[in-house]
Fold this sequence. Notes:
Order of helices and strands: EHEEEHEHHEHEHHEHEEH
Number of strands: 10
Distance between the termini: 31 Å
Largest sheet: 10 strands, mixed
Bound molecules: beta-D-galactopyranuronic acid
Oligomer: single chain
Helix content: 25-40%
Strand content: 15-25%
Amino acid sequence: LKFKIIQNDPTALGGQAIRREVLITFARKEETPEATLLIYLPKNTDGPVPAFLTINFVGNHTIHPDPGISITRSWVRNSKDWGIENNRADERSRGSRRSRWAVEKILKRGYALATIYYGDIDPDYDDGFANGVHRLYSKPKPDEWGSISAWAWGLSRCLDYLETDRDINAKKVAVMGHSRLGKTSLWAGAQDDRFALVISNDSGCGGAALSRREFGETVKRINTSFPHWFCDNFTQYNDRINDLPVDQHLLIALVAPRPVYIASATGDPWADPKGEFLSGYHAGPVYKLFGLEGVGVDSHPKADHPVGHHIGYHLRTGKHDVTDFDWEQYLNFADRHLK
Length: 339
Ligand code: GTR
């Protein structure tokens, strides 16, 4: 694993921020996969800052129109909306996912934002694990990593870098992701207890939602549509979910005693908002073992009323997405727990 700072621009975002990019290379082999970690740092701070580390869907250059962000050379899913053709990103997609990343808001609140493109770690399609970081290892056995686990591993490698960056307080890094990348942030946080806080945005099946409810996306459905996401053994439970020895509240509990936040959206039944709340609720007893309070309520709160102590939760009005409202809650939660 090698880290190389490829740019450090103190004049970014009209002088409000430092834009830093770190090239991460993963192997001894000639054709090593490479990933670029983009970091925005607030200026005029008093020592190392806490940070949000996030993983994104379409490339770092899509989170903000800032012309200085490098464009990924990795595979990207084709999309007219985002301006991606032939699985390659170019200038057309710059800033196209801006609404999901409250960059200025995060910086103003005194946090750094670091992000990595998931396709730089493992392209999101089923290819028998011939590409991405998987190709550096032997083919996964049925109990070994799929793509979600590889993305989570990538987040831990980013944290390895952040631990070396003197402008970041690596003991105060929150890991955050949306949807399949919310499943990823939960898994990263469960496995790597260096993450001080864990955020799941609309993560749904295989993330925060309880599998046994079989509401919205089911285990069978997800394993069929996305055979590369989980380990192969998971498919054994496609038709007998009640035999699964775990459910997703145990995933949330693996974060304890560190704070964890689960967010849902009213227009996102596919991710089962109630099931997402319930996994937070049922992780509560584990937090109690540490003398900590979990969600602090007994029933699914109404929309736009954030709740919670060490387990935060909100149901936002609107669709499957990440909005400024979501970020506002994550910042408030992080202020309470990291500052
Ligand atoms: C859907 C999938 C969900 C969720 C979502 C996303 O197609 O069924 O589990 O991961 O994609 O990541 O946007």
